[in-house]
Amino acid sequence: MNNTPTLHPADATAQPAPAKVPSRRVIDAPTRIFHWLFALSFVGAYATADGEHWRLLHVTLGYTMAGLLGFRLLYGIFGPRTSGLGLLWRKLAGAPAWLRALPQAPSVTQINWRQGQNLLMALTIVLLLALVVPLTLSGYATYNDWGAALGGHWMGEVMEEVHEFFGNALLFVVLAHIALIAGLSVLRRKNQALPMLTGRVEGKGPDLVPKNRAWLAALLLIATLAFGAWQWQQSPNGWVASGISTEHQRHQDDD
Ligand code: HEM
Ligand code: HEM
After folding, report:
1. CA atoms of 76 and 70, how far apart (whole Å)
2. Are 61 and 45 in contact (CB under 8 A)?
3. Domain ranges of the chain
4. Is the pLDDT score of 251 beyond 60?
């Protein structure tokens, strides 16, 4: 018996099932997990920055960002070539030449705007990563009263101000980063945020990043959650109402 369905003449115009749109991997799983954990930690740390109530959560999210930065740097060094931070530097190194070419361009239409946009993106990314260093250091110093120990009360105040300044500087760069991605999505008529979710862009050809390394992404996620859980366990009151660090608590208990 022949079970092959025969096409009714009325169905002859029916479209065949659409073929899967070809796509290529451009961002691997560890980078994507890193990105969203980094972004979420920032939002959380910023939202809990004010007042003593959420202090431990704030500090934990801040350390999480620093830890994630450490991961990203190591992945940049030991990971695949495509995740190397040298790529970012090479892009930025083109900035002086691009700026020098600006006044010489015969007309605005002859300026390589796409390179300019990519330069701006690379610049915001470097700043997003780099700002976490002074932010964590100044936060740590404030939390542990280094200022007071070094130069008295006013020094502590300065440390706080420095920390707040870097916190707001990072917020500014984050907003620029998001605005740039939204702006480029409109300009290029293509959702520029999507690859950070799916890891892929539409198009034929081999994957630009051959391996997804989902196992490393899972490890990073577990390590981050474990750190949060460990911090929680260390705290006498959970996340809230812990205006004093566990270090301070221990000193007080000893007294
Ligand atoms: C809705 C919010 C966000 C969207 C849609 C988004 C999207 C993206 C996209 C598409 C890239 C890749 C850019 C490229 O290489 O062309 C990227 C990179 C990056 N973003 Fe975001 N981002 C968001 C929020 C944030 C936040 C809040 C932070 C940090 C506080 C952040 C930090 C970074 C970093 C560090 C990179 C470089 C990633 C790497 O190569 O390791 N992003 N983001
Ligand atoms: C990396 C992400 C971080 C961000 C975005 C951030 C942001 C901020 C901001 C904006 C404030 C000022 C709140 C205000 O008074 O208006 C603040 C306060 C504070 N942060 Fe952070 N912070 C981060 C990490 C850390 C870390 C890692 C620590 C400690 C180890 C820390 C400790 C503190 C302390 C103790 C204060 C209170 C200062 C005061 O008494 O005014 N922060 N943070």
Report:
1. 10
2. yes
3. 131-198
4. no
User: Do 117 and 184 meet the contact criterion of CB atoms below 8 Å apart?
Assistant: yes
* Residues 176-203: tens digit of each pLDDT: 999 999 999 999 999 999 999 999 999 9
pTM: 0.87
What is the average pLDDT across 71-77?
96
Cα 60 from Cα 69, distance rounded (Å): 14
Q: What is the pLDDT of residue 49?
A: 96
Locate all alpha helices (DSSP H) within 131-245, ordered by sequence: 132-143, 146-151, 153-187, 194-198, 214-234
Name the residue with higher pLDDT: 200 or 239.
200
Residue from 27, 28, 35, 121 whose mutation best tests the ligand 1 pocket (most atoms within 8 A of CB): 35
Q: At what angle do helices 55-78 and 29-47 cross, to 10 degrees?
A: 160
Q: Give the residue, out of 58, 65, 138, 162, with the most ligand 2 atoms within 8 A of its beta carbon, to mutate for a pocket test.
A: 58
